[in-house]
Every structure is written in C-alpha cells, then in structure tokens.
Amino acid sequence: SCIYKKGVHTTQLIKCVCINGYKWVCWKVWLCRIGAVCSLGLLLVLFNWRPRLGILARCKSCPISMADVLLLKVLKFVSLRL
C-alpha cells in the first residue's frame, strides 16, 4: 500500500510500504531462548542488532488481521517538487 503525504514548500513525499504479519511460534521462541543461553547472549545481541532476523527466527507468516507482530518495510521514498 502506498501512503501519500504533502510536505512543506509544496513537496510531495511518496512512500510505498510493505506490511507483513507474523505470529509467535512457541517452540521457535523456546529454541531461540535455549540458543541465547548456549551462545552466552550473542544471539540476543544479533536479534537486537537485526530485529528482522529475530522475527523470522521466532515467528511464522500469517494474515495481518491475525498477526502478533507487524514488519514494515519502506520500498520507495521519492520526493517530488510540485
């Protein structure tokens, strides 16, 4: 879905945002917790540094209406002078 916003000085900003929904999977969450303990917390540092990896490791894809977590990705950012 694309969001259109009008900015200052007659500049139009166009953002195309991709929204994905994810639902927690209990066994994946526990597996990541065990992995965090075995790696002495390095896995948590990785998930803090790259949150998308943490979501992909602990969740499964689902419709947005059923999602526990939403992942937003900005596809385009264009500034147009009117």
List the defining traits of the structure above.
single chain; 82 residues; alpha+beta; 4 strands; Cation-transporting ATPase
Word description of this protein:
Its EC number is 7.2.2.-. Residues 17-73 form the P5B-type ATPase N-terminal domain. With 82 residues, this protein is an alpha+beta fold. The protein contains three helices and four strands; from the N terminus they run ββαααββ. The protein has one domain (2-81). Helices cover 35% and strands 44% of the residues. Strands 1, 2, 3 and 4 form a four-stranded antiparallel β-sheet that branches. A hairpin with a 4-residue loop joins strand 1 (2-6) and strand 2. Helix 2 crosses helix 3 (51-58). The radius of gyration is 18 Å and the shape is flat.
Condensed summary:
Helices cover 35% and strands 44% of the residues.
Topology of this structure?
Blueprint (H helix, E strand, L loop, with lengths): L1 E5 L4 E14 L1 H13 L3 H8 L1 H8 E4 L6 E13 L1
Antiparallel strand pairs: 1-2, 2-3, 2-4
